[in-house]
Fold each of these.
Amino acid sequence: MQSVAGDPREGRIARLRAGLLSAGLDALLISSRANTRYLTGFSGSSSLLVVSQAATVLITDFRYRAQGRVEAGGVADLEIEGTSLWSRLWTVLPRLAGVSSVGFESQHMLHVDAQRVVESGARWQWRPTANLVESLRQQKDAGELECIKAAVAIAELALERTVPEIAAGRTELEVAARLEMWLRELGSEAHPFETIIASGERSALPHAHASRRELQDGDLIIVDFGAVSGGYCSDITRTFVLGRANAAQREAYDIVREANATASAAVWAGMRGRDADAIARDYIERHGLGAEFGHSLGHGIGLEVHEAPRLAKTIDAPLMVGAVVTIEPGVYRDGWGGIRIEDDVWIGPDGPVVLTAFPRQLMELV
Amino acid sequence: MQSVAGDPREGRIARLRAGLLSAGLDALLISSRANTRYLTGFSGSSSLLVVSQAATVLITDFRYRAQGRVEAGGVADLEIEGTSLWSRLWTVLPRLAGVSSVGFESQHMLHVDAQRVVESGARWQWRPTANLVESLRQQKDAGELECIKAAVAIAELALERTVPEIAAGRTELEVAARLEMWLRELGSEAHPFETIIASGERSALPHAHASRRELQDGDLIIVDFGAVSGGYCSDITRTFVLGRANAAQREAYDIVREANATASAAVWAGMRGRDADAIARDYIERHGLGAEFGHSLGHGIGLEVHEAPRLAKTIDAPLMVGAVVTIEPGVYRDGWGGIRIEDDVWIGPDGPVVLTAFPRQLMELV
């Protein structure tokens, strides 16, 4: 790929270089797959990327020779390695003039690899870093936002086509089969995480994957899934009732729905992650279900389905303009079931924009 | 779950304890998800497991309270944490009498977490370890082998049902949609990796995922996918030709098929990983395509789709009785395409047993 005017990857690499200067680093060794894709476009699973002020070098293996050239050739020099990416690093780094202090990604490098780097690369000063690229990734540009919107559209249409097929006697796995088929037919490049279809008592398990359990009349059914478009993820949850909802289901559903709506309307840039979380949590607590909302409110989505920022009660970092986050309050009661409603929300300069349009009112599948 | 006589998890924990004694460790901190599942049955995505001679303690978060009890209650004491698994570790460890040296999994712990452990846990001696649990996992017991066989059966039946739907004009994504639907309908608990449907020139990319490319007459089509049953994976590849194969396709196919068959019949316990790899590599080299076989021959499968052992030219470790490995030679030619044939093989006490039965002869889809 030729480098083109306005290639967003060039702007990203330039911003990273400014960040390296601020951090007093001559170069950064990038082992995170998502960070590598963000900076270079390379989508393979095996690579090391080195960015200095003067160079961008992508080391990958034989399997990705053609793919590396197509995806990253415009912004990075490619090094194709037959045996070990790490051994190639020791031939690449000495060629980078003036590079003495090198950062590595402490949150994306295994202990064993960090040991190797420090021991084999004793002629450089190695410094653990955090979030140098992730902080850039929080602020989605227009192209990234379009990808996420496309991933949302695929997911919503797939769910719309699947809902009529949800019926008593079908297993959770059969529902997952149809939903995932539609996701792929509609162009989802991957399943960003294991589809959750959790029905009846299993819906009380916030992360239950689809099982052989047969759906029964009266079940709560949590459907949590996503799509990928242009490398970017969507992440959506809806909860249905099979048949007519009873009063307890309806009451809990309304509380979760209102918590979702309240938080989705109020997540503004500048707000701390803990304060965003508190909007939904306070609402649910005031309505008596605080003990049943055990996870945090949401997380960023983008090239990864879980990325910065986090909306949780321990997070002091403020939300940034341009982030896309999930808003996913839920309540879970052992032996009874669970309810979660999850939307994807862009934190725009003029306030939150909910990207998901699938109905949020209680849907009784009769 | 009550502990039952003959519970394989108890034997695994006992063998790990023997390994800890040999390694001079009082306890092991386990952060690998697959290792945790192997030892306790717990399948959640967020946990820390501590095993000492006297105790097995599983720390997990609120979301997995019910699931943790059901899956791991029989062999582990559960600690449910609302905020940070790591902070709970510092209340669990002091309760373990006589524990002073603690191993951690260097290959499964991020640098940032290892730093945290060493800094916050200064009253213990921390030692990086490798493969203490993985080495046990290589030798599958009868129950594990049954799970893998079930995962193979699901995958093969799904492929059988999908093949008649592969036709010119369909996109790779549409083929993936049908294949994945059948996998789920037939009970696969998850997709163990991103399904690869790579056609035409794209089949020269060994790890190309399904795209919007439309299949054309004359295409080579690589289909690489798997199923999960009881937590265990299968991993299978077949390469088809859409329409009639030409002479070059047929010639390369026969070389790959023969390399596959030769290696599958010859992977015996005790053989080094490099020697297993060499069986197929030498065959392909002798037939002039050595430069086109750029990846290694195979890898172990089990709770993970890539696990020990590795069958690669750098590996000196011998294959162990009871391992299940992939045998997946391939050739890739830029601009022309690629061919890969991958089977799952159990390395039994009396020699290799090929678990995959799907036909390996060249299948022309006409």
Amino acid sequence: MSNDPLVIFTPSGKRGRFPVGTPVLTAARQLGVDLDSVCGGRGICSKCQVTPSYGEFPKHGVTVAADALSDWNAVEERYDQKRGLTPGRRLGCQAQILKDVVIDVPPESQVHKQVVRKRAEARDITMDPSVRLFYVEVDEPDMHDPSGDLERLIRALKKQWNIKDVKADLHILHALQPSLRKGAWKVTAALHTGEDDDRPRIMHLWPGLYDGAVYGLAVDLGSTTIAAHLCDLRSGEVVASSGLMNPQIRFGEDLMSRVSYAMMNPGGAQEMTDAVRDGMNALFTQIAAEAGIDKGLVMDSVFVMNPVMHHLFLGIDPYELGQAPFALATSDALHLRAADLGLSLHPAARAYILPCIAGHVGADAAAVTLSEAPDKSDDLVLIVDVGTNAEIQLGNKTRVLACSSPTGPAFEGAQISAGQRAAPGAIERVEIDPASKDPRFRVIGCDLWSDEDGFAQAIAATGITGICGSGIIEAIAEMRLAGIVDASGLIGSAEQVGTPRCIPDGRTHSYVLWDGGADVPRITVTNPDIRAIQMAKAALYAGARLLMDKLGTDTVDRIVLAGAFGAHISPKHAMVLGMIPDCPLDKVTSAGNAAGTGARIALLNRTARGEIEETVLRIEKIETAVEPRFQEHFVNASALPNSAEPFPILNNAVALPQVNFNTGGGEGRGGRRRRRS
Amino acid sequence: MSNDPLVIFTPSGKRGRFPVGTPVLTAARQLGVDLDSVCGGRGICSKCQVTPSYGEFPKHGVTVAADALSDWNAVEERYDQKRGLTPGRRLGCQAQILKDVVIDVPPESQVHKQVVRKRAEARDITMDPSVRLFYVEVDEPDMHDPSGDLERLIRALKKQWNIKDVKADLHILHALQPSLRKGAWKVTAALHTGEDDDRPRIMHLWPGLYDGAVYGLAVDLGSTTIAAHLCDLRSGEVVASSGLMNPQIRFGEDLMSRVSYAMMNPGGAQEMTDAVRDGMNALFTQIAAEAGIDKGLVMDSVFVMNPVMHHLFLGIDPYELGQAPFALATSDALHLRAADLGLSLHPAARAYILPCIAGHVGADAAAVTLSEAPDKSDDLVLIVDVGTNAEIQLGNKTRVLACSSPTGPAFEGAQISAGQRAAPGAIERVEIDPASKDPRFRVIGCDLWSDEDGFAQAIAATGITGICGSGIIEAIAEMRLAGIVDASGLIGSAEQVGTPRCIPDGRTHSYVLWDGGADVPRITVTNPDIRAIQMAKAALYAGARLLMDKLGTDTVDRIVLAGAFGAHISPKHAMVLGMIPDCPLDKVTSAGNAAGTGARIALLNRTARGEIEETVLRIEKIETAVEPRFQEHFVNASALPNSAEPFPILNNAVALPQVNFNTGGGEGRGGRRRRRS
């Protein structure tokens, strides 16, 4: 056994013996310990900070003496004076190993640090971005052995960082010579790795050492809104998040009306492409301003979206997506230049677009898969991403199925008489007393319930303006629990229900949720409102149920609700309506904007890109439009909660009144088929 | 031994036995015979035409019966009626092998056909272009097994053509779906192979079968002129050639004045970049019009140029090339999009730029290397590409050296009192009677000598307007041979020489070459003219001599004169002037525009690109500016032919008069050093 000092790195546990005088960074590199460095050990970037531990370490079998490392040297002194070194820290490239020592690598000194996520069941993010910075010292040109400046830079990257086969973007050639000379033959290169050919590309050069940040954007391009997260590509931190209405809305609220617009108007697809790209650029300018950074430092971007948005963003006419067999122009992931998509970020910024799963199940669904990892789940998980379309995934580590179901925009408050987007003033929570049949509610922007003191003052500024998506779900579910609406979806009359809040409204009835007096419109839930929600939730349920059929199961172990809507929905109320399959309520969780999270994962970890590309190929795609059982499930699921499925867990938790308001008139739809309620 | 029929292909000599009924194309493919096909054997492209031979073939040991192949079938009948099949030809995909047969594959049916070059010593061109066409039948989309149209196209290319890892340019996605449907799921794809990653890229799609041509451009971007050859990428044929003055001339006649312009004027480099790219586009429009083709069918392009033009064309400031150590931004070959260089050809057209050899020896010199292949020569060859700079290469298959020498523009007629570009009216050939000292000459645009009958009428239209580069070389050499000018370059007086054509001209004398009367200017050769040519030829010789020193040789086996100027120069006169080393005159040949030819080779054969990239790395670069002996050689070479070198072969062929017109005045430069004359 060698007499060289023993070095033990934590948290990795990697250990080895090194000759006296070996710098800690050198030892770390030789052991494959994840210790960052931009300057390559020249003592100028300070990214290789470590914390030596002293004293007894029975676990490791070593005692660390106070003089285990060399004394602070001039480089560390200077750095400390200039920027301040955290007490107890050393620069790994300066501190030399003299005796046995235990060295801790703090998370901020790790290249592949973990990015913390709040939810335990979600996939971890390990930092491994496509863009990284490398400081190099380049040989000066030699007339007697002529070679291009670029070729010497590439040689330096190979020699000093062991990075092979580096290429340069054309624009690099324009800035190369001045940068090298300004930096006295020392430059920091931003390299992008992870094109299809996996050759690193020089994207940018800074004269001398650049130890600032570079950024990436994770973008969820929805039919209605575009949401972007601006991330620091070194720390993984989200430095700003922002959203914007999709400017394509003026061409059509929902996807099919945009496809129609493209079909009916020559140049219409291009108009919509321009609109969404313009909107994207406006959003990027806004988010960079919010974060106070130069947009030119955004060097990578990841985009997820449904298939129609995918095509329109890429400039592909979505015509084929409007009709069977719903053929995508391309389903594979795309590695592009942001500039090729008309985006003004760094001139060499890359754009990665996740693969699509099928003609109706897009890159957004793939991003949900990446975030929620059903393919890695031990138990059987149903993942529902509720938007204008619902993308549904069901599976576990053995098998994953996916489909899309056309829920329409009712869940977003559209097609609802008092419906509105989730904004201050919108009713978002509803409770109805089963005895009095009177409601109380909360509106967005106010923490008080409507029957609490001070409510009127608290909402004075916003007023009560309508009902948002989660509000209408709760209202109808509460009406069903209070016996105001029957299993077929019919609202009873004042007499049938026993409350004057049920008022005649044409040939049916409406329920008055709020009457603010003569000056403001009454907010009611109408029978057509219930019909719209019935259609939407029946589509959603039928899709989920179809996947359960395909998998040969009647139950799921857990349900994940994704999407902004999923974050606000009450699982109990969703189940009362029969939106989602019967399941213990504590097994229904919200994943928030899982598509956006998936985009962020792909932005921060380039290995995840390859992974999701492979996973998507293994997902079994089900096309609801041509499945005969989908129609049957849909009809059954029109009832509240369902005319065929037993929902035993739900029935155990709540008592659904056995009311029937069908008096034989024309509105008895659903009653005919109702087998139980 | 099998009883299957024996098939022998000529000219390859490949042979094999195949079951009765095997199509000829199938047999060819299995044997690796070079037999073309775009449609993959579907009988629609007619590219696989073969000529069966019948009768006795003792050489091959077979007798071919009249019924060795199946009868003409309906496909061949239809093709013959529609387009006419050359008598004796069959379609290889239709004709089936029934008995032993000898099949000739005519050159036009070979993919890798040879392109004929006129000169025996030059490198052959084997067709292997980067862009090729492939017809495929693509699976229709299936809702139950969804996949993108692109992914199915890529699958078809793999299955039907065994082409792997195909990628598509972004713009292909825009045209993909309509093309597939218009062609009823049959398309012809243009694939580009030979990017750095060697993955084929889909550049263009035609619905159904496209059996027209696609084109490429080989461009020699000179400081003075841009010359382009438009080539058919299937046949290799040059369908049009055209040239244009380099529009950068307005920023400076020679390279260094353009570098100065960039240094003195902010934005000057960009102005020159724009100018040359605009000129290029004008030239491409012109050449496409001449050939009567759609410029959008130009899918590949190759560019060669000197380092300053290289940088200016790429948009790189040439500042560093104006001063030691003459560092190139990049010396490696570049694979680019033509669109990235501002060129409007096919939107996906590629641009390949040959590697540069050194800061003064550019991609044009590399192209000369490719064309003239000194690295493959058994004997020691000196290659001189004469332009504003002379690029000089010396070597054989063991070792090749290269340098550049600043000859200046005198060889192009600039800096000469009566000098002009080579255009009708310019004197291009000169003879002087040693006895009478009277000249006769020929002008461009007229086949008669000036002393022949009808000359005056023949040149009436153009007149006699000046002397071009080759004319001034001949005039001075003839003056030297006739004893009108001495070894130091001094013109004698009328008395010294014995002709009134020697007239006083300031402090020296001039020789009257042509006196057209009072109405037109006299054309004379002045002593400053001789001085300019002396400087130019001394630079050229000194460069060549320096390389000979480095190689330790005093002689070369042969000399190749490249460049347009080299094509017109008289080897004897060049040697009398001491422009080129002493060498048997029959070993001095002209290679024409070898740089342009090299560009054409790289255009037509993608393997040649990799070859020249490797060759260039092996060439030893000599920087004349820092070689002390260059100055010495230059001074010696100022004399006519040389004040230090013996030129024994020349002296054996011609008698150089031992005259000396130095009367001790101020103009005796060179006489002082003259050791022999």
